[in-house]
Write a structure and sequence with these properties.
The structure is a homodimer of 341-residue chains. Chain A is of the alpha/beta class. In chain A, 53% of the residues lie in helices and 12% in strands.
């Protein structure tokens, strides 16, 4: 019996079990996801990424607390998905559910799930996609997707999220700059966390400089000009917010003290509204689903082909390859012609 | 006309052109790799990985210089492949060929190639594999494969290399520790670079502690005991080097001054000898080729299937998916049954 129904009814135990089924890519998990899929598309997916040492986990923690204790309006249902692609071996949740639990324990409006890679990055991305869909269908309005590391994983997360936060902190190593150049292009909101540390101005200035490189439109320079030199005097003649182009704002926070969190939440909400208004949300949804479709297709094609070729044929090709009698490409050609004959 | 022949004859211009063909996955590049493959398997592939700020590039630079100016014996032909998976957008070589060139310029025994991701991590891994094979066939005896970032990319690089160096440096952020847990397991040699910085003992102690967790054999503790408490007095009764188990040594370096580089090169050579003696080299080669075979198979299966299905059928499935009328899994089932009928 599928877990889809109890999950839709808000049963948290059923949800936890379903997420395990999804992580294991079981048949039950697949069927439940089929049933749940029409109920998805309501959550705001927020990606949180940044280099080690920037305090991502604290920030996610305090954002979740904020959404649970909104100064006005009802609390939001919040899910946290902590993805750790750098941990392919331990299989455990390094990000530490227990650490978070001190603040969020006992609150049934918060659901936390840690995921570690099990071999392939592609497998992790697919599993994360499924987990987020299940949480979305289960009624979580805010889903925070946190990832450790710097690289392709962040880009994949950005494809999954509606709003991507890139976290920085003052005083981290030399070639952080180099990494940022790529990561910056996926940022919808930039956060300088640990803003009480020395060097916060340098970090912020570096980010502004990179933003100008990444978005070299007159609009940006206008905005910068206004912000830093003339106050709001220019805003009467030049619209403060271009209706099409989103310029990632830079928010300072001291997450462990909760400072800057309400302002950050406001910037996140503003971005969500922006992508709704401009049609960007629909575009992102489409591109996200397309990439999921392609990933699933790839995985299914390999599984189907595997069923058509004998282990002996595969082993023989590998044997010839290891002896360098054929090249990898020639081994593939051999196997693919054999597999279909 | 294939570039394989001039590449085998040592033509560097032909090599550079071939590497571009391989990166573009062109038909010429594929054919040349088929021809070159029987000539591979002679180079020592050394992976170099570590978090931003550890000084990887300087270290690679000075290792290359060392191999070019060996105190005894002829200079080795050295290639450097700098892989930057965190830079999927710029498409450029952030790692800075020009910076290296100051020291290595004009030396035809050194060949440097930077590679940035072009979309998918899988594509980058395949291209890197091909580039390394071409360099191997071209006669480079030492191939240094450097990667930026922390995550799955490192693991993939480790699969490619015979000897993997993991670089650390004192005083980098808080949760570096968490990342190391996964990365450590791919390390053959650990390097604490910037060893003149404060905190070097703390970093080294942390690494030793993690090594004990990762390799909890009596052998290790014996080694540690000997190294730190009793000097060499124990070594008469307990063999210093277990013939089967390799314990990653920890080497201190100050790369920008060249300090510790000869000792590091010695540890690298020792590891290479160890994996040759124990059969581990053959095992790694096999597992590497197997993983390349699987990657190529996956890519080829997708390409073949794409040719059998109409763009209309694909677009229709995506359309239904975006309207949430079918789930991603159902879209795949639809496309796969249609594609073969």
């Amino acid at each position: 019996m599928s877990l889809a129904h109890p999950v839709l009814e808000g049963n948290r135990l059923a949800l936890a079990r379903l997420l395990t089924q999804i992580e294991n890519d079981s048949e039950e998990g697949r069927e439940a996801l089929n049933e749940l899929f029409p109920h998805t598309g309501r959550a705001h997916l927020i990606g949180v990424t940044g280099a080690p040492g920037t305090g991502k986990s604290s920030l996610v923690n305090h954002l979740a607390l904020y959404y649970r204790r909104l100064p006005r309006g009802p609390a939001r249902q919040v899910a946290i998905v902590a993805v750790d692609p750098s941990s392919p071996f331990t299989g455990g949740a390094i990000l530490g559910d227990r650490v978070r639990m001190r603040d969020l324990a006992g609150d049934s409006g918060v659901f936390i799930r840690s995921m570690a890679s099990r071999g392939s990055l592609g497998g992790l991305a697919l599993a994360t996609t499924g987990v987020v869909q299940a949480l979305d269908a289960a009624g979580f309005e805010i889903i925070l997707i946190e990832t450790v590391g710097a690289g392709q994983a962040e880009v994949d997360i950005a494809r999954l999220a509606h709003t991507t936060l890139v976290i920085e902190a003052p005083g981290l190593g030399d070639d952080i700059q180099a990494i940022k150049a790529g990561i910056l292009e996926i940022a919808d909101v930039l956060v300088v966390n640990k803003a009480d540390r020395p060097g916060v101005e340098i970090t912020e200035r570096a980010l502004r400089g990179m933003l100008q490189l990444a978005h070299p439109t007159p609009h940006i320079f206008r905005n910068h000009y206004r912000d830093h030199t003339l106050g709001d005097t220019l805003s009467e003649n030049t619209p403060a917010t271009d209706p099409i182009i989103w310029v990632p704002p830079i928010q300072r926070t001291i997450a462990i003290e909760g400072q800057g969190i309400p302002e950050l939440a406001k910037a996140i909400a503003k971005h969500y509204q922006h992508i709704k208004n401009t049609g960007e949300l629909r575009r992102r949804e489409r591109s996200r689903l397309r990439s999921e479709l392609d990933n699933l297709l790839r995985e299914s094609l390999v599984a189907r082909w595997r069923a058509t070729v004998s282990q002996e044929a595969y082993d023989q090709a590998l044997h010839n390859l290891v002896r360098r009698e054929i090249s990898p490409r020639q081994a593939v050609d051999q196997l693919l012609s054999g597999g279909l004959s």
